[in-house]
Model the fold of this input.
Amino acid sequence: MNILVTGGAGYIGSHACKALAEAGYTPIAYDNLVCGHSWAIKWGPFEEGDIADRARLKEVITKYQPAAVMHFAAYAYVGESVQDPGKYYRNNVAGTLTLLEVIRDSGIDKFIFSSTCATYGIPESVPIREDHPQQPINPYGASKLMIERMLQDFDVAHGLRSISLRYFNAVGADSDGDIGEAHDPETHLIPLMLDAATGKRTAVTVFGDDYHTPDGTCIRDYIHVSDLADAHILALKALEDGAKTTAYNLGNGHGFSVKEVIKTAERVTGKVVPLEIGQRRLGDPSRLVGDSTRIRRKLGWNPRYAELQLMIASAWHWHVSAKKCSEYVWRHE
Done:
C-alpha cells in the first residue's frame, strides 16, 4: 500500500518513511528539498515537487495511487514566522489548501497531519490537554491551527478523515544511525548543545535563567522522533479502521529544564557543554508540558524512548557518526 509523505526528506518525515516501510507500507517521499535532504530518502521512491504545485501533485498521485497522505511539508521556525508571516501563510496554509484540493479530487480519504503544540499559545494550565484553548501567539502556530480547521471542514464537505498530531519538542535520531537531525540554520537545543560540546560552536545560549522554575530555566516536554513516527503509523491504522477526524497530543507528559538537558548531555557525552545566559525570548512560557493520555488510551501509543538520556544518546550517536559537508550532504564514516 502506497502512502504519500509530503516533506518525506525532512527530519520527522524521513523517520516516518522508515516506520512506514517497517510496517509494510511503501512511502512515497514528496519534497522540494528546500529544507529536506536527499540522503534521508532511503525507504521508497522519491518525487521532487512543491505542495503548491497542483499539476505536479496530480501527476505523482496519479502515478502511485496512494491510499493515504502524511503531511509534514511546512516551514517551522517560530522566529522567522514573526519576521516573515507571509512566507508561512503562503506555504503552510495556501500550499496545504492546494494539497487538500488535489487529494479531494483524487478520492483519497485518509490524512495524517503534522501539527504542533504551538497552536495552544501560552498555556493556561499544565500539562496541556487536547481541549485546552488554541490561541497561538505566532504565525507558525496560527498557520498550523488554520490547517486543523481546514481539515475539519474538508471532512464535513468531502469526507476526508484526518488525525492531527500536535507535537511537543521532537528530539533524537534513528537508533540505527541511518538518519538524524540536520537543519540550516539550526535552532533546536540538543543539536546546538552537542555542537558546543564538540567545539563546533563556542557555547549554547540559554534564553533566560530567571523563570519561576526550580533552576530558573524553561521547562519543555521532549519526545523522541522515532516515537513520533510510531504514532503516525498508529494514526494511519486507526483511519484504516474507520476512525473519525480528531487530534492528539504527542509528548512525554513531563518536562525537563534547559539546565537539566545540558547536564544530561554532559553525562552522555563525557564533555563539558559551555553555555552563556541570554535574554528571555518574547512569548516564551516557563513551562510547556503535554498530556498525551488520550492517544495512549485510544491508540495504544507507548513511547519507547521516554528517558531523556536515551533521547540525547541517540542524538549524540548520530552527531558523532555523521559528517557535515559544505553542501549539507552527510555521509557515514
About this structure: The chain has ten helices and 16 strands. The CA atoms of residues 325 and 331 lie 8 Å apart. The longest strand covers residues 110-116.
